[in-house]
Sequence to fold (236 residues):
Amino acid sequence: MTPSLAALRAELKELADPVRAVHSLRFFKTGPGQYGEGDKFLGLTVPIMRGLVRKYRDLDDASALDLLESSWHEERLVGLLLLVEGYDRGDESRRNRIHRAYLANTRQINNWDLVDASAEYIVGPHLDAEKIALLERLARSKNMWERRIAIVSTFHFIKRNEFRPTLKIAELLLRDTHDLIHKAVGWMLREVGKRDRKALDGFLRRHYQQMPRTMLRYAIERHPERVRKQYLAGTI
Fold:
């Protein structure tokens, strides 16, 4: 049978867990003034959603984008995962369409899990490591989620031992005021350090005194305790 958007939505609703949904409201900070304010949850686990993505992987991209417009958080995540699947399997024309659609809908990619499940797979591979003007523009955005997309997209390059994009975007975000950006930048820097400790330490020695504390702590998590203490004490 040809998979349908209506069937997928029906399964999402059928699998909903109201108790888990209440927990998700707290976990994803949906209260007044919080970063996920007003979001709605069905209460589904990530493994369940990934299973549905495998089952409905042949849905067209228009259906995935329809899900991305949903007010339900899990429907947006499933839509993004379907787009990731489509990008991975698509030809150049399809990849171009998905990439453009993704950037046109960043207002709906509005929580950290949505960014982290998609940016490195749709934005990163569409760019050349030497041509990251798009990421620089996103890093300067007033939209916090676009700034997170900018840094998390560089994970694509990190996994290929190309560290310049990460270090460049991290430098642009050093003075960002949001904790979720501090965590994302620190995470990406730590991933650089796993592969090239010298590259990370070179960046840290230039910038660690400017870095927000959370960003620095994340970046140096894998350093020896003695070195971590030196960085945190400002004695490197």
User: Anything to note?
Assistant: The radius of gyration is 19 Å. Residues 1-107 form a domain with the Leucine-rich Repeat Variant fold (CATH 1.25.10.90). The chain has a mean pLDDT of 97.
